[in-house]
Design goal:
Blueprint: E1 3-6, H1 8-24, E2 28-32, H2 40-47, E3 53-56, H3 59-68, E4 73-76, H4 85-91, E5 94-97, H5 100-112, E6 117-122, H6 137-144, E7 150-156, H7 169-186, E8 192-197, H8 201-205, E9 215-218, H9 220-224, E10 242-255, E11 281-287, E12 299-301, E13 307-311, E14 316-319, E15 332-337, H10 339-346, E16 352-355
Parallel strand pairs: 1-16, 2-3, 2-9, 3-4, 4-5, 5-6, 6-7, 7-8, 8-9
Antiparallel strand pairs: 1-10, 10-11, 10-15, 11-14, 12-15, 13-14
Helix pairs in contact: 4-5, 6-7
């Protein structure tokens, strides 16, 4: 049986380190919990950290969060689909928005539910994912801020997630200037500039982030202990908060070179083979996990001298070399996962989730 574990002590350590960093810099931060995919076991562990805000891009996950703790402030972090407006108002205290007509629908639903819904307007800073174009921002804001039961609490921006456009001082200063222009033009206070994510943490550390950036959304650095700017590991954070464990379901010494006519494999690829494999054997293990659960490009064996050599829909083949650990059927092999690996496998109903 394959299972994924969350190390509660590592998670707590990373949370405390990040919380201290942001507190020292007068920054409020929210945990981005979409990696947990609404899993109740893991959500309870994260919410036990006494977090103030949690973000997600699935309203069903926000509903699960509110069922556990209805006092934590929830944030819906992508433009809202029209079919989910009623649930977003019910389960998200705040939503990130870029479409005027969508905010009008949120306003109507908030009136209907007798609630005030908070909104962060996302601004396009070059990543070309979500965001109001900068030249349209003043007109957009003017049409939104008088809508009933809608409170604009911030401006935000997203960088890196699609094209890898990195945040820098210049881009974030642009965001702060738009806040100042809107506040002066309309005599309104905008409390947040949500310009930070895991990729922006290095700008705090080298003192190059504008002081007005006062809100961050953090997922990767909390759960991975990594610097999203360059992929390196933070020395003061723990890695492998999540770990994948897979059971060996077959183990034999086999020839390294396949035998027979070579065609396309199940993923449509034609595999090439090293001529040096001829007349060589090694120990090969099959683990109870496959492409249905995870992409093998996003996992790495934690033990040295072990290599993934192939995968099908529900099995992965591992090269154990001469099997120096004397592994046998029923033993487990641990793996490191990157962010996308965890996100994919958390969506698999076939992989158990456990707290350690």
């Amino acid at each position: 049986m394959a299972f994924i574990t969350l190390d509660k002590n590592k998670l707590k350590h990373n949370f405390k380190q990040l919380d201290q960093l942001f507190d020292n810099n007068n920054i409020q931060w929210a945990v981005v919990g979409k990696l947990l995919c609404g899993n109740e076991i893991f959500l309870r562990e994260v919410l036990s950290l006494d977090i103030k805000q949690i973000c997600d891009s699935r309203v069903s996950n926000l509903k699960a969060i509110k069922a556990i703790n209805d006092q934590v402030e929830t944030i819906y972090i992508k433009p809202a689909p029209n079919g989910s407006i009623d649930e977003i108002v019910e389960f998200a205290d705040i939503s990130f928005n870029t479409e005027l007509e969508t905010i009008k629908l949120l306003s109507q639903e908030a009136v209907k539910q007798n609630k005030h819904h908070k909104v962060v307007i996302m601004v396009e800073l070059g990543e070309l994912r979500e965001g109001v174009l900068r030249e349209d921002l003043i007109d957009f804001y003017q049409q939104v801020f008088n809508l009933p039961n809608i409170q604009i609490i911030g401006l935000g921006a997203n960088l890196t997630c699609m094209y890898g456009i990195l945040p820098n001082n210049d881009k974030l200063i642009q965001l702060t200037l738009y806040k100042e222009v809107l506040e002066l033009r309309f005599n309104k206070t905008i409390p947040y500039i949500s310009g930070g994510a895991s990729v922006t943490i290095p700008l705090i550390m080298n003192s190059s982030i504008p002081k007005a950036i006062n809100h961050f959304r953090i997922g990767e650095s909390l759960f991975m202990g990594t610097n999203a700017y360059d992929g390196s590991c933070y020395e003061n954070l723990k890695q492998n908060v999540f770990k994948l464990h897979t059971e060996i379901i077959e183990l034999h010494e086999k020839p390294m070179m396949p035998e027979g006519e070579v065609g396309l494999n199940m993923t449509g690829e034609k595999v090439s083979f090293n001529p040096e494999w001829e007349d060589s054997t090694n120990y090969r293990a099959i683990i109870d996990l496959g492409l249905l659960d995870i992409d093998i490009e996003h996992i790495t064996p934690l033990w040295p001298d072990i290599e993934i050599v192939g995968a099908s829909s529900d099995m992965i083949v591992i090269d154990l070399g001469q099997n120096p650990k004397k592994l046998k059927v029923g033993d487990t092999i641990p793996f490191h996962m990157d962010y996308m690996g965890i996100l994919r496998i958390m969506n698999s109903d076939y992989v158990e989730k456990e707290i350690i």
